[in-house]
Amino acid sequence: MILDFKNKDLLITALSHRSSLNEKTQSGTTAIESNERLEFLGDAVLELAATLYLYENRPGEDEGKLTAYRSALVRTETLAALARELKLNEEMFLSKGEEQGGGRENDSLLADLAEAVIGAMYLDQGFGAAQDFLAKHLFPKFSDILQNKSYKDQKSLLQEEVQARSLSTPIYRVIKAIGPDHNKEFTIEVLVDDEVWGVGVGHSKQIAQQAAATAALKKIT
């Protein structure tokens, strides 16, 4: 891992999923609490840092466009990719059951993990260090977001596409929901004119719908 913390306990807590606390011996964590509070903090730190970055680097853009840029920069998929690049998924402490269930490749868990690490870095070294970390590892992704126009909502892009083809409005339908209420996973399909165009999975209906729309766009383009 490339992260250097003064307070190693903060890093351990940031890497500790709630499931690991129930199986400390098996998971290897020494944390006394899960990373959920650090995730909460990291979310706020990330939003402010991303806002400042965009404000300074996209002069002349209106509030609506900046908001769309920020949403794309801090969305689940972007943060999950960051976690993988930093190999945080390999370092995360998980219960045996969560690991067997694919927790190390779960985009939602990995995005939460990235936010927790950002929150821990803020506490350990301050906002400037968190900004430097994000400038090096996250903000360079913005050029790809601009190039691919992925700052546009995937459902909106799909809607534009079907309208251009004079087809009916996409319909999103839940076909499966599994897991406990605090960690439910939804499988959603998107239909156009009664034909399935894409299927998506996520830990919220919104995430699963976006994934389904993304799959549909890939199929037709």
Q: What is the rounded distance between the termini? A: 38 Å
Low-confidence stretches: none
**How much helix is in the residues?**
55-70%
CATH class of the largest domain: Mainly Alpha
Overall pLDDT metric:
92
Q: Outline, from the CA principal axes?
A: flat
Radius of gyration: 19 Å
Q: For the largest sheet, list the strands in their spatial order.
A: 1-2-3
The ordered H/E elements are HHHHHHHHHHHEEEH
Major β-sheet annotation? 3 strands, antiparallel
CATH topology tier name of the largest domain: Ribonuclease iii, N-terminal Endonuclease Domain, Chain A
The total count of strands amounts to 3
Query: Which percent range describes the beta-strand content?
Result: 5-15%
Structural class: mainly alpha
Fourth CATH level, the homologous superfamily of the largest domain: Ribonuclease III domain
Number of helices: 12
Number of domains: 2
Identify the CATH architecture of the largest domain.
Answer: Orthogonal Bundle
